[in-house]
Write a structure and sequence with these properties.
The protein is an all-beta fold. The protein has no helices and 4 strands. The protein is elongated, with a radius of gyration of 14 Å.
């Protein structure tokens, strides 16, 4: 399988005052709730608008990839100037 961009949101991840992108990558073998079987890992990247990757999180084998499994929010919940994911 390969990966394709699946979902995105924006927020200031590094506190520099500029918006950054949170991009979720889903494997092409992702399955929705009605299908059984193995899926590849879901990956989430934090990326600056110039394309520099700030971080990458691989959600691992135990998080199923597919519709409704890996929704996320990007917001500065604690008020420190950096958005949490």
């Amino acid at each position: 399988y390969t990966y394709e961009a699946n979902d995105a949101s924006v927020g200031d991840l590094d506190g520099d005052g500029a918006l950054d992108i949170v991009l979720k990558w889903q494997p092409t073998n992702a399955k929705d709730n009605s299908q059984s079987g193995y899926t590849g890992n879901t990956i989430v990247d934090g990326i600056r608008l110039d394309g520099t990757r700030l971080w990458r999180v691989d959600l691992g084998r135990n998080i199923r990839s597919g519709a409704h499994y890996t929704q996320f929010q990007v917001y500065d919940y604690d008020g420190d100037g950096r958005a949490e994911v």
